[in-house]
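Example record

Each entry pairs one chain with its bound ligand, magnesium ion.
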Amino acid sequence: MTRLAARYAELIDGGELRPDPQQAAAVAALDDLQDRLEARCADRGWIARLLDRKPDRTRGAYLWGAVGRGKSMLMDLFYETLKIERKRRVHFHAFMIDVHAALKKARQCEQGDPIATVAQTIAKGVRLLAFDEMVINNSADAMIISRLFTALLDHGVTVVATSNRPPRDLYKDGLNREHFLPFIATIEAENDVVALNGPTDYRRDRLGDAGLWHVPNGPAATAALSETFFRLTDYPPSDQAHVPSCDLALGGGRTLHVPKALKGVAVFSFKRLCGEPRGASDYLAIARTFHAVIVVGIPVMGPEMRNEAARFVTLIDALYEYRVKLLASADAEPDGLYPAGDGRFEFDRTVSRLLEMRSDAYLDLGHGSDATTAGD
Ligand SMILES: Nc1ncnc2c1ncn2[C@@H]1O[C@H](COP(=O)(O)OP(=O)(O)OP(=O)(O)O)[C@@H](O)[C@H]1O
Ligand SMILES: [Mg+2]
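Structure tokens for the complex follow.
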């Protein structure tokens, strides 16, 4: 038994994870991949690398299934316990943003094929690339991904990915999908496709019945939200002082400090999100990155807070579009948040969305936009 299988067994024995046959099968597949990757990296000294220009490939893995089935959790365990140096784990969306930026640069200053140049740069540092939440919903990504992946595989990079869709459903109904089909064929040929699609949505279980919307703001609401945060992230509450933070890239070199960010869950104050000048693109960056967002300190907004109310509307639109789970503390239920002022009419839509975002049907949806559009 290697480290991944041992670690998984430990978590089951310790009661942190519940036994799950589909997860056990995925662990076996990933465990085998760990062995192959580690053996290969150990074998290949610098002479072998020098002589062998086209390295042989190690088959990767593609984990797919409905939300909360443990895909990211297993990928993280696999990644943490994998004993090779050259590995990289990225959120797929962030990776594609980097790729587009690198392509733009390559087009400006290079001759030849920019995709080949970018693939070479990426491949230089890595043997294993782990992608969380692979989703293709715009034609710009669909057009480059196939060639980029083939090039990465040719460089000997092994890919592990998680997705809510099986490969055959990626970019479903997308524009010019026929150009995308070779990518699906490549994934199916080069990866073990593993379904993690059991009956239990563990994230949902962890949300429990604690409630998503806490009224009013105050110590009881804070305690309830904090309890949910620790349950969602598996972080020990005793170590509250050291919850990681992050700086989220917003584009154009700007960043947004996220005071608590862990395992796709972020905590913000209403003040930081809606009290400062921000626009839709900032909120979309948040919505794409986090599957659950906790907003604390939502006040009742008077007419003088029309700017805050307008930003709040934009924020909720973005979270809703990306099916982000929203948890909040507020001084009123949604319909009492903005009783009067400019844009009150539009606010009705937000109230309705907020109510829908608490429904079972909404909570069962996966993270991410399902809109397949020509652009993004
Ligand atoms: N067997 C299990 N027993 C208990 N909790 C589990 C189990 N598997 C996963 N979890 C927990 O369920 C939550 C959701 O898991 P995870 O984030 O890996 O889901 P996912 O499949 O990646 O979902 P999504 O498609 O939304 O990204 C995590 O907190 C994880 O630790
Ligand atoms: Mg996930």
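The pocket of adenosine-5'-triphosphate (ligand 1) is lined by residues 17-18, 20, 23, 67-73, 133, 162, 164, 202-203, 206, 232, 234, 291, 366-367 (CB under 6 Å).
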